[in-house]
Structure formats: structure tokens, C-alpha cells
Amino acid sequence: MNCGLCYFGLMLYFLTSNTFSYETSSFSSTLDYRDFAAGKFKDILTDSCYNIGEQQIERRNTKPEFNNISRSIKTEDILLTLGSNFLTNRTTSSDHDDRMVEGVYKLHILPNGPVSGAVCLDGGAWCHDADTCYQRSSTALGSSTCFRHDVHLEGLLSNQVKYNPDFYNWTSVFVAYCDGASFTGNREKPLKVKNKLLYFRGRRILDAILDELLRRGIDNASEIILSGRSAGALAAIIHADYIRSRFRRVTNASFRVLADAGFFVDAPSLNGTEIIRSVFRQMSSLHNSSTSLNHACLHAQEREQEWRCFFPQNSLPFVASPVFLVNSLYDLWQIAYLSNIRCVLNIKTCNSTESFHIMKFREKTLHALRSVFDSSNETAVFADSCLVHTQCVMNALWTKIQVKNVTIAQAFANWYRGGDEDRFRIDCIYPCNLTCPKHYRIKRG
Questions:
Q1: What are residue 61's phi and psi, to 5 degrees?
Q2: Are 347 and 358 in contact (CB under 8 A)?
Q3: Is 207 a catalytic residue?
Q4: In sequence order, which residues have a C-beta less than 8 Å from that of residue 28 and are 6 or more positions away?
Q5: Angle 189-241-69 (CA atoms, 0-180°, nearest 5)?
Q6: Euclidean distance between CA atoms 429 and 435, whole angstroms
Q7: How far is CA 76 from the centre of its chain?
Q8: 3-state DSSP helix/strand/coil percent for the chain, to nearest 5?
Q9: CA atoms within a 13 Å half-sphere pointing along the CA-CB vector of 381
Q10: pLDDT tens per residue across span 342-369
């Protein structure tokens, strides 16, 4: 959201391989939703800034158990720009925050492998009012000045056969997230807050990213997977048909979507407050998002109810692109910060009322999924009972969590290749699944 002279950037990074250990929750019981909206949490994958607003650089040690994507300074693929230092104007710019197209981390390219590409959109909640967007503007979720020089990703984006046997040799691209509205913003004039101009132009950022991917040769691909996690998964659902149409202008590549933890449920919090509805309603207005949402879904809504198309339960029946949903029936982040049941982060501390509502979240999720089950499109669902949020870029979850004796990786690959007759894999009631991470399981009764 900084309004100084910046550039459109393409950042290329290369993958080195190790393993991943998923031992503890990265969420904090001291945070609430507004903290996420403002970007006030320290585990943003692309973040290099330690203190919010003060822009102090965090010196993080690379952990050996992670895949490390670090910058190569010896090749021409270090840091390329779309026209060097390019100052955009207010009518044609693709900026939201600081006039820079978000970081596009190219993880690996194996020239001898098949010409196929996987594009992953990162997440990070949404900012929905002037205050949260202003605070967010000083973080990696609102400014490219905080982008890290390396990221740690696995799962679908891994180049190791043992973790990703079906897609390890694909060209993988990881797109950072900094527009605050799942790439839907289309507000013409910036908003001035405390002498800073905030830009809400996520849709133009998306278009610039697609332009760059096409310039980089994705039109030569025979297969394309659009994936995303959390708010990035929601973006993948919202923009699936639009992105496919952009690619189809120049390529006949097959196109499928993997949405990881992007199925946000339209449900009130523990005290009856409709947090997620309020966020989507305000965000749609502030960012001028409605024109970027699924057009068929928009036509099905009543006037001034267009924001409802942010909810996948309303938009997915209108999505023509094949979508594979990976979601927990007990989504940890949704329960903790949208249902406002913070004890789920340490479930043994929950009282009987909180435990009851946690268990009811499975029913709410399945009820919301009914529109998907009843639709005639190709959407598939892998819904496990683990207390997690996002699973497809972590080896330990991607390859270990099972529903009906099939892992996420196997289920997605089978669906992708057309060999899975079970489109809807629905898990049993918590805490039945012994393949879930141990620190989120409790002993039964």
C-alpha cells in the first residue's frame, strides 16, 4: 500500500530438497480476526519484516527440515522486471499496495520433464476496512518491500518423487499475496488513510501476473494446475473460469483447480456474530470487488447481495472449471478466528459448550457442501477430520493424512487422471482419524 516508485517484479527462486516436520500450531490464541486482517502475525511465508509498521528485518535461520527456495545470484533468472523501474499511472496500473506486482517465486524448472505448470496462489486472510488495510500495508500482505528472499514449500510444489510422484517434474510457480481481497479489488481511486494512499486493484495484479506467466511461456504447457491455499484457494475458486479463459486464448492445455482450505463456511460465531459475512460484505464494498466475482453467481443474487459470491457454497455450482477441494471438516482457522472458539488451538482446554460447537462445525461444513454435492460439475471433495488449516504445500500432511485409506496426494492424482470414481471423500467424526497430526488429536471418551 506504499505509493512510492516501485516496479513490476518477477522473482525466480530454485528448490533444494529436505523433509518437513509439522509439530506445532502456528496460530496464536492471543490473536483475533482483525489481527489477521491487519497482517499482525509473524509466520507469513513471504514476510521478511519483523515488527509490523516499523519495517525491521527479521533475520530468520533456515531450518534444515524445510525445502529451501533461495535466490540464485549467478544466473540471469535472479530478479527480472516488467520494464525495469516502471511507474504506473492510476488508470492503467495493476497495483494495490505499493505498485508492484506480487512476487512470483518460480520454484523449479526441469527442462527434460513434461511441459506442465502448477501455479499456487498464497493466502493470508483479507482486509475489510480502512484501518485493517492501513495496518496491513506495512506487512508482506500489503507491501512488496517485505517480501522474503526465500520461501519454504512442499507438497504439490515439491520436486521430490517420494513426496510428489505425480507432479514432481512440473514447472511450479508460487504467487505471493498482497492485495487483501483474493485478487478481486477493482477500485479506481486510491483511498487516503493517515497520509498514505491505499490501492485496491487486486484484479489488475492478477491480470499482470497472468500476462507475465504467458510471457514466460505457460502457453506452451499441455497441462496447467491452478492451486491456492486459504484466501489464495478462495481466489482460485473465484477466478478459475476467468483464468482458464485467459489461458485458452493461446493454449488448449488441460486446466484443473486444487483449492486448499478455501471453503469458507457461511456460519455465525459462537456468540452469534456473523464475522465472515461482515468481512465479505465490507470488503466487497471497500475494494469494489463485485465485478471480479463469478458472473453467473452474481446474476443469481439479489441486489446488493453480490458479496455472497465470496462464499464457495454459493459460487462453486456456477464454476465450469474442474475443482478439487481439500478442506478440513473442522477447519482450525475458521473455528478459532471466525467462529471465535480460540480454545480449539489447545482443544483439551475447551469447555463443554465450546466442544459442542466445535463438533457442530462438521455439520455446518457438510451442509454448506451440499450445493457442491448436488451440482452437476466436476468438483471433487477431500474433507478430512483433522484440526488443520491448509495441507497441500506440506509434505507431512499432503502424503500422510488419509480419508478412506487414500492420502490427499493420491486422491488428487487419481481425480486429476480421471481414475477415481469416489469424487467425495468425507471423513468420520473427530477424533476418529489416526492419520491426523498427533498434536491435534485427543483421546476418545
A1: -85, 135
A2: yes
A3: no
A4: 41, 345
A5: 80
A6: 13
A7: 29
A8: 30, 15, 50
A9: 26
A10: 999 999 999 999 999 999 999 999 999 9
Query: pTM, whole model, 2 decimals?
Result: 0.85
Please state, for a pLDDT cut of 70, what percent of the chain lies above it: 75
Residue 130 pLDDT exceeds 80: yes
**pLDDT of amino acid 377:** 83
Q: What is the pLDDT of residues 159-193, one digit of tens each?
A: 899 999 999 999 888 898 989 999 999 999 999 99
Neighbours of 374 (CB within 10 A): 8
Catalytic position from the list 108, 239, 357, 389: 389
Closest by CA to 240, choosing from 313, 171, 315, 300, is 315
33-47, 253-267, 291-305: least confidently modelled range? 33-47
Is 144 an active-site residue? no
Minimal CA–CA distance to 342: which of 22, 35, 23?
35
Distances (CA, A) of 444 to 131, 348, 429: 43, 12, 11
Instruction: Indicate the pairing of strand 171-175 with strand 196-198.
Output: unpaired
Angle, to 10 degrees, between the axis of helix 231-248 and the axis of helix 202-215?
50
Is 389 annotated in the active site?
yes
- Which of 230, 269, 292, 339 is catalytic? The answer is 230
| Dihedral, CA of residue 371, residue 376, residue 380 and residue 382, to nearest 10 | 30
How far is Cα of residue 377 from the mean position of the Cα atoms in its chain? 22
Place of cell 457438510: 366
* Residue 218's pLDDT band (cuts 50, 70, 90): confident
Please provide the average confidence, as pLDDT, over all residues in the chain. Answer: 81
Residue 101 confidence (pLDDT)? 43
CA distances from 53 to 46, 57, 60, 275 (A): 16, 11, 18, 25
Contact between 122 and 228 (Cβ < 8 Å): yes
Contact 326, 309 (CB under 8 A): no
pLDDT tens, residue by residue, 82-125: 222 211 223 334 443 333 344 666 645 445 444 799 999 999 99
Average pLDDT value for residue range 265-291: 96
Q: Which amino acid is at 247?
A: F
Catalytic residue among 331, 339, 357, 384: 331
Strand order in the sheet with 254-260: 104-108, 171-175, 116-121, 223-229, 254-260, 323-328, 380-384, 424-426
CA distances (Å), origin 436, targets 120, 355, 444: 24, 18, 14
